[in-house]
Amino acid sequence: NAGVTQTPKFQVLKTGQSMTLQCAQDMNHEYMSWYRQDPGMGLRLIHYSVGAGITDQGEVPNGYNVSRSTTEDFPLRLLSAAPSQTSVYFCASGQGATNEQFFGPGTRLTVL
Amino acid sequence: RKEVEQDPGPFNVPEGATVAFNCTYSNSASQSFFWYRQDCRKEPKLLMSVYSSGNEDGRFTAQLNRASQYISLLIRDSKLSDSATYLCVGLGGGADGLTFGKGTHLIIQP
Q1: How does pLDDT run across B20-66, given as a tens digit for each residue?
Q2: B43 close to A (CB below 8 A)
Q3: What residues of A are in contact with residue B32 (Cβ under 8 Å)?
């Protein structure tokens, strides 16, 4: 099992550009989520999904979209990148919201 | 917003010593708690779950005190490899999943 994979590992964007961060898991987990981690702020939930076709907003959803067309994939889209979105982004999956969450290796995003 | 609070440290501890962290939570409805470990520039990984009766895994012991709304992590005979950030995590019972503390930074010194 590859577990949770994320691509790309690093990305530099200019303000206003859009991009998609990819996340995939091969553990057949129904629950997937996206977090951002900033110094001094800890991990903050952006969006989550309890199954294919179902998504919901977390604590900091503005500027991000998600979709869940399959159980395996949960991409995060930045619509118009802003410097405030410079962060490390982690995707996670678990059997459910109350179970152990497995994290991907993260994507380090810089927006200039 | 549900809150989980931790002392950010850093805790500088000599190798072989015992170190303990506490973490307080504000949502009394929280049913489950975890300790995650995060190494520098890596993803968080589960260290241990925290049960009402407390649990032990080798040199690590986790305790839950519902009356005072805190959980603790005790590390005995600390090793250099224990140097990391330890994240306290609670669950509010809703579908939005985990609430992470900001982490406690531990440095084990030779």
Answers
A1: 999 998 877 777 899 999 999 999 999 999 878 889 999 999 999 98
A2: yes
A3: 98
